[in-house]
Amino acid sequence: MIIEVKNLVKRYGDLVALDHFDLSVQEGEIFGLLGPNGSGKTTAINCMLSLLHYDRGEVSLFGSPMSPQNYKSKQKIGVVMQNVAVFHELTVLENIDYFCGLYVADRKKRRELVDEAIDFVGLGEYRKFLPKKLSGGLLRRLNIACGIAHRPSLIFMDEPTVAVDPQSRNNILEGIRRLNAQGATVVYTSHYMEEVEQLCSRIMIMDRGRAVATGTKEELKAMIRTGEKLSVELPDLPAPVLREIQAIDGVRQVSYQNGQLVAHCMMGGHQMIAVLDLLRQRQLPFGRVFSEPPTLNDVFLEITGKQLRD
Ligand SMILES: Nc1ncnc2c1ncn2[C@@H]1O[C@H](COP(=O)(O)OP(=O)(O)OP(=O)(O)O)[C@@H](O)[C@H]1O
């Protein structure tokens, strides 16, 4: 295991930010920490990095205990924090060179690494720009370049796509995939479930400082009873027929609003044919039909009783 966290407890006064938190990450993974605001993702990362004191528990990185003095491990780690942390007096190139210089003393080698990092995040035409001249998305890309230029083998990224434009978001996500393909293990926090689903090989869903479920997205979705969500466009649906649909085996919950029937179904059933057959038998014409698999929000909702997004 490249990361092994056991029984971590972190309190801020009376608030328990991490509540007996365990985590194992294997080399080569893109591991997602998914949870709503305040669930403890940033605190978990800061504890793993020894940036925060914790009350209890153990953190081991690269097979050895992590501590503020463990410089051997620190050299192999890249960190992209939630808040952009760059020097506003330095240009794009100077910023990346500065952060890379904390790890790589050799100037020639550093020049190569900095150039690679600039290409990597697509900031080639902005090398001489000061950060204040960059858009929010470009600034985030600079933040990433500063965190990864020294070619770390373990990268922590804390919500790197918050408030960025779609082009920069795609650039960032694609970049993370490439870093991973080049051998880096990535721990990625987000409260965007779609992003985590697309990117991560395994996901931990967090709530109130605890891991509520961990697995691949398929494993997580198999943990719940919620199955597909069926939507059928139809101009009219009398209430008695709606009740008949509700009574179909495997249909959990139905609603009809603005010409759209929505049926939430149980996992493992095939209720679409039964629902459409019933509409046909009742001579109710319908238009487009959609079927959506359960989302990680459904997983979160079923386990915690709350929506992932507040
Ligand atoms: N320095 C601090 N002092 C007191 N409470 C804190 C401090 N930092 C975090 N907290 C609290 O600890 C809990 C976990 O916060 P944390 O920032 O780790 O969550 P998060 O999942 O990263 O949230 P976000 O998505 O908003 O970054 C929250 O209730 C937060 O208010």
Distance from N terminus to C terminus (CA atoms, Å) equals: 34 Å
CATH H-level homologous superfamily name of the largest domain:
P-loop containing nucleotide triphosphate hydrolases
Low-confidence stretches: none
Count of runs of 4 or more consecutive helical residues: 11
Protein name: ABC transporter ATP-binding protein
Keywords: ATP-binding, Nucleotide-binding
Pfam families: ABC_tran (PF00005)
GO molecular function: ATP binding; ATP hydrolysis activity
How does this model look, in words?
It holds the Pfam family ABC_tran. InterPro entries: AAA+_ATPase (IPR003593), ABC_transporter-like_ATP-bd (IPR003439), P-loop_NTPase (IPR027417). One of its GO terms (molecular function) is ATP hydrolysis activity. Keywords: ATP-binding, Nucleotide-binding. The protein is α/β, with parallel strands linked by helices. 35% of the residues lie in helices and 28% in strands. The protein has helices at residues 41-48, 71-75, 92-101, 107-121, 136-148, 166-181, 193-199, 217-222, 239-246, 271-281, 296-304, and strands at residues 3-12, 15-25, 30-34, 56-61, 64-65, 77-80, 154-158, 185-190, 202-207, 210-215, 226-233, 251-257, 260-266, 289-292. Helix 4 runs antiparallel to helix 5 (136-148) and helix 5 packs parallel to helix 6 (166-181). The radius of gyration is 24 Å and the shape is elongated. The mean pLDDT is 91.
Short summary of the structure?
It holds the Pfam family ABC_tran. This protein has helices at about 40-50, 70-75, 90-100, 105-120, 135-150, 165-180, 195-200, 215-220, 240-245, 270-280, 295-305; strands spanning about 5-10, 15-25, 30-35, 55-60, 65, 75-80, 155-160, 185-190, 200-205, 210-215, 225-235, 250-255, 260-265, 290.
